[in-house]
Amino acid sequence: MVRVISVEAERFPIAGTFTISRGSKTEAEVLTCTIRDGNAIGRGECVPYRRYGETMESVQAQIGQLRSQLAMGLDREALLDAMPAGAARNAIDCALWELETRMSGVSVAKRLGLTPVALETAYTLSLDEPGAMAAQARKNAARPLLKLKIGGGGDDLARIRAVREAAPDSRLIVDANEGWSDDTVAKNLAEVADLGVALVEQPLPAGKDAMLATFKHPVPVCADESLHETKDLAALAGLYDAINIKLDKAGGLTEALRLRDRATEMGFSIMVGCMVGTSLAMAPAVLLAQGVDFVDLDGPLLLARDRKPGLTYHGSLVSPPDATLWG
């Protein structure tokens, strides 16, 4: 039987405005790939990201270019060779994982040998002036793990201090989004260490991060924009202490699992993160994140409206996906 492939562009409003150093947005723009084989249906959601040269139109076109091969039964292993890492491959790969589950009756978790549990996720504070970020932190001070979006210039340390004062009991992750420089990175890391920061993400621009090998890190430094898939790991050894795996960067759960396992073998700490998407995008990532060091899967918490059914969040605890959602 020939499979039927469709792609739908969807928009979900963000609660307020989400701001990082590269700009602001008020809605999550996602693409959902659906693959139907008889009565079995698999879905996968991706978030095209302009930082990597992706748009809604370009990613939709990428999926369309593979339509005939998918219709004739292209599988996940062949997909890795047929398409580069990125949002398009992620949507297809996750749809194929779920399609396999619907056809076999065996859940993704079971196929991975998992008995998944609820995970503690970070909650992200949008980039703003120090006082406004302190207000965000105060509102969420009961959350055990907060992630700060910074990289907005000279006020970064003031932002971190303001958040620390407003949420003294929370662990902090600082995401610089490539916003620091060779001249500031060592000093900034020393100062955030004194503030009890647990992890700093991507302080320097991808490809311009050699400076990180020249000094001992007082806080673990995590690669985000510098890492997409497994082949990138060798170049990160000696620069970074941790990596942030996102399905939209790795190009799906299949590659992300390999990336996680190889990075663990190499001694990296692991974070599983996300773009701002819905529960459908987070669901496979929750399975990927079982047992990792840091979890940042708060996308649905940042939305004014999520899919129904969606993931269940109790405070900062996110439960594994129900079969009615994915997998």
Automatic annotation (TrEMBL):
Its EC number is 5.1.1.-. The chain crosses the membrane at residues 268-292. The active site is at K149, K246. Belongs to the mandelate racemase/muconate lactonizing enzyme family. Its cofactor is Mg(2+). Mg(2+) binds at D175, E201, D224. Pfam families: MR_MLE_C, MR_MLE_N. SUPFAM superfamilies: Enolase C-terminal domain-like (SSF51604), Enolase N-terminal domain-like (SSF54826). The keyword Magnesium applies. GO terms for molecular function: metal ion binding; racemase and epimerase activity, acting on amino acids and derivatives. It comes from the Bacteria. It is an enzyme of class 5 (isomerase). Gene3D superfamilies: Enolase-like C-terminal domain, Enolase-like, N-terminal domain. Residues 130-222 form the Mandelate racemase/muconate lactonizing enzyme C-terminal domain. PANTHER family: D-GALACTONATE DEHYDRATASE-RELATED (PTHR48080), ENOLASE SUPERFAMILY MEMBER DDB_G0284701 (PTHR48080:SF3). Keywords: Isomerase, Magnesium, Membrane, Metal-binding, Transmembrane, Transmembrane helix. The keyword Electron transport does not apply. This is Dipeptide epimerase. Binds 1 Mg(2+) ion per subunit.
